Amino acid sequence: MLDIKQVRQDPHQIADALKKKRFEFPVDEFLRLDSERKAADIRSQELLAERKKASKAVGALIAQGKTVDEAKAEVNDSLARISSELDAAVERAKVVQTLLDELLMGTPNVPDAAVPAGLDEADNEEVLVWGTPRTMSFDAKDHADLGEALGQLDFEMAGKITGSRFSVLQGPLARLQRALAQFMLDLHTTEHGYTEVYVPFMVNSESLYGTGQLPKFAEDAFKIEGDSGYYLIPTAEVPVTNMLRDRILESDELGEEGVKFTAHTPCFRSEAGSYGRDTRGLIRQHQFEKVELVQAVRPDQSDAALETLTSHAEAVLQLLELPYRKVRLCGGDLGFSAAMTYDLEVWLPGQSAFREISSCSNFRDYQSRRMQARWRNPETGKPELLHTLNGSGLAVGRTLVAVVENGQQADGTITLPAALVPYFGSDTIAATK
Fold it and tell me: What is the predicted pLDDT for the residue at 181?
């Protein structure tokens, strides 16, 4: 959530900045509500002073020789009027404050000045390309055809069990999924210094509000029916980042590099509005797995932390020998809560295209303000908002897609990168007998 003090200082500047995200900030509505809230607060203070004065009048009347009952009777009408007006002013202030909070909750984060202008992914800025796509002497197949030919990827069975946009992996491909997740977790914990956490796969609405999924993206969430109010997690970002909600970390808890968590979880998304896109295969499923990277750092460290976190996701692709490119998202493609995002796009021979496999974002204090995630600055002794970041390190299903498509051979077998062999137990996947 944006800092209301900064919005008040120059709401037109905020509105101009948000146009890069194609968001029209309602300046007039904000100013009207903020003015009304201020007026209600002032009126409440005036009525409190008036009530205090009226209460003192009782003592003055008694000093003039009137009985207690006579004195009270003389000021009761005034006190009743004041109390009624005060209750109304306090209630109106609460109502207007709620409307202000809802307005700000529905307002995205301001993009960084370095975010390029643009409407969609076609306008994203390429930062680097790593690796060279392999030249194949045969027509490359996509992962769906390869997996079905191996007898290890079954969409029809998943449709029977559940419905569309689900899959069943069997045998070596199921083992490959597990090997990839284990490989990523080991890399991030042993080489990159993250603490592995195991978190709930269901969260309450407060957690989704905290990271910005609600109220904006309610239609993308799977809500559990009944009275629990729980939602299936769309990403481990939600439960892991909310581990910091309503906390104040002392400086020694934060350490020199902030706190760094990684988690392997399933993710559940309705994919509302994406019908007709990637309906076949593993690219866009209702259920998928990710290894998530989450950091919380001091405000002056978050820009550098984004570069470091992104390099951790890149390390996975490099060790798996997967060609990829890194792009800086333009304003029109930038996420709701993000101030800056790098996407990593892996090369998929079956599509002859780069496709997103990780988004790494700096949210600055946008999430931490919603969650009240803070640290105590030892120089001032006062709590300050943390800066939060997260990224996929990586999306496991899409990594499986990339490994299978890039490792395909003319005979339909799959050659695996050397880094995976200790986890998988072989360097080749062949058809199930």
Answer: 98
Judgement on whether residues 364 and 299 belong to the same structural domain of the protein? yes
pTM flag (> 0.90): yes
Amino acid letter, residue 262: T
Best CA proximity match to 29, nearest among 91, 104, 95, 89: 104
Q: Which domain holds residue 204?
A: 121-429
CATH of the domain at 26: 1.10.287.40
Give Cβ neighbours of residue 311 (< 8 Å, ≥ 6 apart): none
The CA distance from 399 to 116, in Å, is 28
380 & 294 share domain? yes
Q: Is the pLDDT of residue 205 over 90?
A: yes
Q: How far apart are CA 52 and CA 86, in angstroms?
A: 12
**Whole-number Å distance between alpha carbons of 379 and 377:** 5
Provide mean pLDDT across the span 121-125: 97
- Core vs surface per residue 345-370: b (16+ CB within 10 A) or e: bbbbbbbeebbbbbbbbbbbbbbbbb
Report if residue 277 sits inside a domain. Answer: yes
| C-beta separation of 100 from 368 below 8 A | no
Domain count, the chain: 2
Write down the pLDDT at residue 146: 97
Question: C-alpha angle with apex 241: 238 to 242, nearest 5 degrees?
Answer: 80
Count of positions (residues) in the chain: 433
C-alpha pair distances (Å), 209 with each of 149, 200, 241, 291, 337: 43, 16, 12, 22, 11
- Decide if 61 is inside a domain: yes
At 433 the pLDDT is 61
